[in-house]
Design a protein that fits this description.
The structure is a homohexamer. By secondary structure, chain A is mostly helical. Chain A has 2 domains: 45 residues, Single alpha-helices involved in coiled-coils or other helix-helix interfaces (Up-down Bundle), CATH 1.20.5; 119 residues, AhpD-like. The first copy, chain A, has 9 helices and no strands. The longest helix of chain A has 24 residues. Chain A is globular and about 50 Å long. The two termini of chain A are 24 Å apart. Chains in contact: A-B, A-F, B-C, C-D, D-E, E-F. The interface between A and F is large, with 49 and 49 residues.
Chain lengths: 193, 193, 193, 193, 193, 193
Amino acid sequence: MYTQPDHITALDLPIPERDRLPETFQKYFAICEEKLGMVPNVLKAYSQNPAQLDVFSKLYNELMFGESGLSTLEREMIAVAVSSSNGCYYCQVAHGAAVREYSEQPQLGEMIVMNYRVAELSARHRAMLDFAIKLTETPDRILEADRQQLRDAGFSDSDIWDIANIIGFYNMTNRVASAVDMQPNPEYHALHR
Amino acid sequence: MYTQPDHITALDLPIPERDRLPETFQKYFAICEEKLGMVPNVLKAYSQNPAQLDVFSKLYNELMFGESGLSTLEREMIAVAVSSSNGCYYCQVAHGAAVREYSEQPQLGEMIVMNYRVAELSARHRAMLDFAIKLTETPDRILEADRQQLRDAGFSDSDIWDIANIIGFYNMTNRVASAVDMQPNPEYHALHR
Amino acid sequence: MYTQPDHITALDLPIPERDRLPETFQKYFAICEEKLGMVPNVLKAYSQNPAQLDVFSKLYNELMFGESGLSTLEREMIAVAVSSSNGCYYCQVAHGAAVREYSEQPQLGEMIVMNYRVAELSARHRAMLDFAIKLTETPDRILEADRQQLRDAGFSDSDIWDIANIIGFYNMTNRVASAVDMQPNPEYHALHR
Amino acid sequence: MYTQPDHITALDLPIPERDRLPETFQKYFAICEEKLGMVPNVLKAYSQNPAQLDVFSKLYNELMFGESGLSTLEREMIAVAVSSSNGCYYCQVAHGAAVREYSEQPQLGEMIVMNYRVAELSARHRAMLDFAIKLTETPDRILEADRQQLRDAGFSDSDIWDIANIIGFYNMTNRVASAVDMQPNPEYHALHR
Amino acid sequence: MYTQPDHITALDLPIPERDRLPETFQKYFAICEEKLGMVPNVLKAYSQNPAQLDVFSKLYNELMFGESGLSTLEREMIAVAVSSSNGCYYCQVAHGAAVREYSEQPQLGEMIVMNYRVAELSARHRAMLDFAIKLTETPDRILEADRQQLRDAGFSDSDIWDIANIIGFYNMTNRVASAVDMQPNPEYHALHR
Amino acid sequence: MYTQPDHITALDLPIPERDRLPETFQKYFAICEEKLGMVPNVLKAYSQNPAQLDVFSKLYNELMFGESGLSTLEREMIAVAVSSSNGCYYCQVAHGAAVREYSEQPQLGEMIVMNYRVAELSARHRAMLDFAIKLTETPDRILEADRQQLRDAGFSDSDIWDIANIIGFYNMTNRVASAVDMQPNPEYHALHR
């Protein structure tokens, strides 16, 4: 039917053997394996350029795990809603698994992939995802009224800054992944069902 | 996080108790339970009007299981691609499970939900799904060249007729399901992973 | 200028001579001729597969002429508005004629073909057609608020179910007709002007 | 069902009595009545401002009846295709009647209103209308290749200039008519059927 | 990097030498040079056909400089907003310079080119440009409510007529300019910075 | 006419006084002032969170000034084309100035803001910007054929990786800037005209 591609990306990139990577990244990859059971392919792809890998992974960790008024699950919900709107296969697979994990509600992960609008969400989460989709699909049409809806749903201005940055981040990675046909690690599919 | 709705649809419809249904439907529902482990909610919803249930289920069975040059998996692949384009939660869940089952490739079900364009499909299946999406999204722009691409991929004119009818059918059911917020049976999520 | 095609569809389909059809359909076609002055080409096209013709025509008759809180004209208005949005030539011609007939207002048929938004409709009909177009164009964006607008315009939940099914039905037939370049019977053009 | 509006536009404009108009326009209106059987409402609307009426009607007459490599029917076909894409009720009614008249093929008028893509047109007319729709819908995406397709279909560079101006003109009038809810004279509907 | 085209349009048109033009136009061009420091290329292009040049320039002058409740700056703001939505290079350059000139706020010209929604405008100007963009992008969706918003912002019905005509005019010229790759005079770029 | 906002963003964020910033950032800001004549507002906005400012500025510098087969001007051209498609005022202003600077062709900066398709670009730059816009507008539709067009225009696979990352980066920053109504420093407008 369908042939599973055996590439990380469709580009011919000089991805080094893992034991040729700078030691920091060897350690980082070991931690990934311990925590996730794999080294995500996105990190392998960026490892072709250690300077890029360094800043990319720092930005990712800062936005997804740094101090914030948003819970980790909320950040992952944004990741999946944005990636669904952009049709990014890699990010829907990887972050869909994360929503299943953090919510302990496997259906929620699928629902945000398929159409978050049908989910019976709290007013807070509905406002958060509505903003995520509007900013993703029509960034030029965001007005003060849109920011106010987030405030009305209980978000502080610092939270809105974080929401904007996380939405922005997945609009970046979705496009990198789609541009190069990045393949998610097959392990994600069975996780947290 | 998310509250699983306990309704079949968001409408207040006179769905009868199962033992009040005409005997044919009681038998039909028993067969569903035997084969699928459940009575799909779409059939329960239509059972409020036995005449509608009768014609709807006959059309469904004719198009999905009647004589055709298309395999059952191919028909289910169309169902999922169309339902993904239309953002129909019910049909992506129910027919995504069917693609996982018939293909024995769970990832294929997810891939067509998330973005069928990234899948490494045969030329036949690529042409079939490209036509499905064009007919779904811009039905007014279908030209002879589009039909010819199906012929070039090996489909007969009778196959094209069947493809058109299956694409049409899911454009109908997607809209009925979305219009009434039809909820898929929770059992689907775990099937054929 | 323009050459009238002499085909029923652009596909090479095994449409049988009328006297080779099962007797029920010969009778059905005779009734059509009596009532409409012709056998609609859509029925001739489906007659290549008697099982399909049977379920298609039963679904059509159930939705358009079965018990419902919607008048026949209202169902035809939905048919034309949906078909206009989808750019389906066959259905705009055939059901445009029906709106001219049932309304006895020829301009109303043209208006719904051209842009129903300009018509001075009752609040009930405006709400009905607004829902039809939203469900046709962005089925993934239908929310409870949309259903509520129909209730506010006086429709019962059973009416909404019927509206959803009729909208769905024309989203199916529009795509079948466009996929195969189905040609309307030339007789329609002059009817009920 | 539907209430025929009795206004020319939805705006409260100082449209003068006909006998108060400058004499040139009284004559012009008399000619319209003789040739068309009516004074088109668009002219009545512009008559509130004689200076505007003067330049508008001169531009209209220059583009539609001036020297050109395009036949009058071709100019009217462009008018209808553009007006259909823009959903302009007034212009579809008025110029649809003109296509029926000049082509002596009533179906052609309806076809261009409903979806010109299904018409079996000559390569020249197909290229002309494809250009009209692309320039109407995505003017920012016109490239040299689009102009070349017109040349390949036999149009001279002067013809292309005329085509561009006629497409432009209806993109203007469509928006004026829609902005003010301009109503076509009821006489158009029955003409040239 | 980029090669400045040396054509007025991409078409091969019989544009006459200036001293072969009818005397009225020679005078008109002299006035342009005096006031603007150049003869705008759009006038040179139309000069291939004196009858067209005559009506085009009269309509332009009537709409942009005739009696109206709209200031010249307001008319130019509409010109730029519409031209930005349509991606018309010629008109954004030429009328962007005019907004810089009339407003004496160079940033305002750039802002309307780039995204008028971010500008802190008066309610009157916001309503005017919102209407301009809606009428430009979705002319078929204009309703009485849209006209009412203009009235609520202080515009009279005669003003709305003028707004509609100016929006319409740039929807015409944008398409003519894009269709023929009309190049703005290089002088515009440095004006009124 | 228009009131210049005096905020950096529309959010109430704890942006520290410059002399309270960690010393590295004080130095970084001093370098900006020396080189650009200002500290870009985007850096001031991020300075509310030193950890974010650190990774954001490193990613920016890596992508825009790190080793690559793309020239700095090419990266800036991508920045402006993407920002124009997304309607981001901040980035069009800031990077439009950069294109004017690096190209020494002020018109090129305006052209990419207004509609890059009209520019007479080399095949390399046309392919690069076409890819940028397709990845920005329809990231789900990128196929191997799109990557191949970049290769055919002379880009290596490593160049494509860089192109993808720069396009992604501006799809991130455009959304952050639009989400928070970030205002560009007024100094940009007059630079490099």
